[in-house]
Amino acid sequence: MTIQEIEQQIIDEFANFDEWLDRYAYLIDLGKDCPQIDEKDKNPQNLIKGCQSNVWLSCEQRDGRLYFRADSDAVITRGIISLLIRAFDGQTPADILAADITFIDAIGLREHLSPTRSNGLTAMLKQIKMYALAFSVKG
User: Fold this and answer.
1) Helices 3-14 and 20-32, interaxial angle, to 10°?
2) Catalytic option among 6, 10, 48, 51
3) Which residues lie closer than 8 Å to 116 by C-beta, 6 or more apart?
4) Interhelix angle for 75-88 vs 115-138, to 10°?
5) pLDDT tier at 139 (50, 70, 90 boundaries)?
6) 34 assigned to active site
7) Which candidate in 14, 34, 50, 99 could, as Cys together with 107 as Cys, close a disulfide (CB 3.0–4.6 Å)?
8) What are the CA-CA distances from residue 123 to residues 23, 24, 60, 67 (Å)?
9) How far does Cα 1 stand from its chain's mean position?
10) pLDDT digits (tens, 9 = 90+) for 5-33
């Protein structure tokens, strides 16, 4: 699936919820299914700077595609990073770098986050793009 197709799936899923409390509950559920980072990778190099809570993100490249694992000490944040992983996991660095992520605003996520969580979301996206850039340079 392309990033855009995955984004549309996410938008469609969130459209099933009328209330933001239900969307938060769904985010928490998604966080429970987040691809877990290995404990050894919960280190300062994988800690995303700029997040209110601790968020660790690791990335590896296999067959020209990037695969992400993450964890957070906050359940809402774990749900947010799991959405990002869902959109980008298994994609090529070029596709990640070219992606114009629209689902975040389309589902109203950014507007329903506190300013510090919104900054954290931006930091998570930036880190994913930085991994894509680093792996595109490595080839």
Assistant:
1) 130
2) 51
3) 52
4) 30
5) low
6) no
7) 14
8) 22, 20, 19, 18
9) 16
10) 999 999 999 999 999 899 989 999 998 88
